[in-house]
Design a protein that fits this description.
heterodimer; A: 404 residues; alpha+beta; Butyryl-Coa Dehydrogenase, subunit A, domain 1; Butyryl-CoA Dehydrogenase, subunit A, domain 3; 3-stranded mixed sheet; 12 helices; 7 strands; 52% helix; 12% strand; B: Non-ribosomal Peptide Synthetase Peptidyl Carrier Protein, Chain A; disordered N terminus
Chain lengths: 404, 95
Amino acid sequence: MIVPILERPTATPFTKPTATVGAPDRFAARTALVADIAARFADEVDRDARPPREAIAAMKEHGLLAAAVPTELGGEGATLSELSVIATELGRSCAATAMVFAMHQGQVMALWRHGGVSCGVTAMIEAVRAGALVASSTTERGIGGDARRSTCAIEPDAAGRIRLRKDAPVISYATEADAVFVTARRSLDAAASDQRLVICLPSETTLTQTSTWDTLGLRGTCSNGWTLDAETHEDNVLRDDYATISARTILPVSHVLWASVWLGIAADAADRARRAVRKQSRAAVGQTPPGALRLAELLVDLQALADTVRHAAARFDAVADDGAVLESSSYALAANALKIGASERVTDLVTKAMRIVGIAGFAATGPLSVARHLRDAHGAAVMVSNDRLLQNDAGLALMTGAIL
Amino acid sequence: MDQDPTTSATPVALADPTTEQAVRRALADHGRLTVDAMDVASIADLYALGLTSHATVNVMLAVENELDVEFPDSVLNRSTFATVESITAAAELAS
């Protein structure tokens, strides 16, 4: 039967709101499925500080962890702009799940952008395409939070075998990962900053827990402390040095995707504020309650954050293959500016949302509570220290200004 | 809150007359239409009859208040408020 298409809007009036305005989003439906699952377990994940296992399984099943694998390697070739939207949507549901997604993408993109063609790297790309989750170990006890220096070193053994041992103050979601990418000095006599990135598979790695992640927020990332002992093969060392990998890929990608997650946290808090104000407005239709003005003000800030984040993602996509631009000091400053700016804004936005909601927002639980949002938001400035980034910036700032 | 306890929880294919009446009352009170909302055709273009995007906010709030429902974000667009029929459909989806 042929159904005439009427001009009446009842047939298909229901389109997706905000955030994904523009081109049809090939990941939207799958992201929504994963976000639903993540939302269902978000409070439990937060309360028990346990990994978001259900959402991780769903990300594997629906190809979100594999989204960025290039098309020439059999993947879907998601751009950073696309990954940014996914990270935000997941962040609206469960910040821990979204952070796992974000941290994973920065690592896996290093594989095809910097890995070379050794069989260890090739096998890892294939595993990622099939859904593998990758964690990372960059920071080290005795070094502080500086990912660009290591004590840990690659020790050669017989027949191309290598060993390394790292005392890591945090490795996020280590127990759930199918591989941990570890920074280490190139050799025993290499300088602290002369680093490589090593693929450590669970079968070749022993993890000994040294501390427990019991934090204010982002509890589900389970960023426990571990001593990592790996015995693997030199084939599992990525081709490029870590300075290049970090500047061209891991730093810009991570900063965009973390900021995308924080945008999601703020957006969900703002949604709750809107629900609260709408409830007040219903009591006296036609009179705008005072909260509506605050809500409008909140949306100004939220839109500015959204525009900043998406623009940074698009800027990376535009220069993704231009090493000279990515390694320039102005680009590094811009990437750090995104991280610092977004992490400061997210706590501010969520705090404002809480005040708009009032008591129901201040409540620890409930449909209008923004308690988890506020606690998670504070992780943004702490988990990678803004002050350390500013210290890095301080040197660069003497050489170059902002990208205008 | 004042829902009839005998009302069936199962979804109905046709527009619930109660819902449509609530929509019409909301339009009459807040729609600022140039015609009587209580007997405007259910598929008439309300924007052509004086409805503004400003007024739709109050129509939405009034419908939500009267039916104790909340329109999901996904239906809050211009076309949803174009006719009595489309607002009624969205309200029933929200309930």
